[in-house]
């Protein structure tokens, strides 16, 4: 039986950013889109751990494929850390495990610009307080020491035009025992948009994999 797929987009996208990827998946594939900004909030305060807990509440199959992009990949990675010994499979694309040092000051000082950019890219209204809480969490992020706790298979997708995420992919490959990296040709950070057919091909392979 094919595993169901759960898709979590980044903050600068909406759930329809997965349309082309879903279009290229086999017709019988069960797909659930999880809206990243709907996870992890108590009032306006975002918690990565809370987001992972709420993601788990939405997953109804013990052998699901959990795929995240950008900040959605960070939530998926946190979920993998919190569920050792599970039968889930993970696909991570364009996510960080420790952002560069300049990112925190840039996001704090340039918050109005960052917020507006997120709205323009996602074509939706976003609460500025929630955006600030997510970006502050992201700027302080460092998952490197906890990556060794992940026991599930992890596939990292990196676009050949997305050099920013080569180092995070290497960090995961070095620390996660059952991990591998696949390059997407001529794809950038938003590889679900720039290489949807390749992205879907890798997802379909994960969904068809038998239980270990």
Order of helices and strands: EHEEEHEHEHHHEHEHH
| Residue share in β-strands | 15-25%
Count up the helices: 9
Query: Can you give the mean pLDDT?
Result: 92
Enumerate the strands of the largest sheet in spatial order, edge to edge or round the barrel: 2-1-5-6-7-8
Fraction of residues in H or I helices: 40-55%
Low-pLDDT segments, ≥5 res: none
* Overall form: globular
Question: In terms of structural class, how would the helical and strand content be classed?
Answer: alpha/beta
- Count of beta strands: 8
Distance between the termini: 14 Å
Task: Outline the structure in words.
The protein has a six-stranded parallel sheet with strand order 2-1-5-6-7-8, sandwiched between helices. A two-stranded antiparallel sheet has the order 3-4. Helix 2 packs across helix 3 (71-82) and helix 4 (103-109) packs antiparallel against helix 6 (128-139). It has helices spanning 19-24, 48-58, 71-82, 103-109, 111-122, 128-139, 166-175, 191-194, 196-208; strands at residues 5-8, 31-34, 41-42, 45-46, 65-69, 89-93, 154-159, 179-184. The protein is globular and about 50 Å long. The longest helix has 13 residues, at 196-208. The model has no long low-confidence stretch (mean pLDDT 92). It has nine helices and eight strands. It is of the alpha/beta class and 212 residues long.
């Amino acid at each position: 039986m094919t595993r169901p797929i759960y898709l979590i987009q980044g903050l600068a996208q909406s759930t329809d950013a997965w349309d082309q990827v879903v279009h290229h998946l086999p017709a019988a594939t069960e797909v659930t889109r999880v809206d990243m900004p709907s996870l992890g909030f108590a009032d306006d305060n975002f918690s990565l751990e809370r987001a992972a807990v709420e993601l788990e509440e939405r997953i109804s199959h013990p052998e699901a494929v959990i795929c995240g992009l950008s900040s959605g990949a960070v939530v998926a990675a946190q979920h993998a850390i919190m569920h050792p010994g599970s039968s889930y499979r993970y696909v991570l694309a364009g996510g960080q495990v420790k952002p560069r040092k300049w990112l925190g000051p840039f996001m704090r000082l340039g918050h109005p610009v960052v917020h507006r950019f997120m709205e323009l890219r996602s074509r939706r209204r976003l609460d500025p307080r929630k955006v600030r809480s997510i970006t502050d969490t992201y700027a302080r992020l460092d998952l490197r020491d906890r990556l060794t706790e992940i026991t599930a298979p992890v596939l990292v997708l990196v676009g050949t035009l997305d050099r920013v995420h080569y180092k995070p992919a290497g960090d995961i490959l070095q620390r996660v025992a059952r991990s591998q990296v696949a390059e997407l040709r001529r794809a950038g950070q938003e590889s679900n948009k720039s290489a949807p057919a390749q992205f879907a091909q890798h997802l379909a392979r994960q969904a068809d994999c038998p239980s270990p």
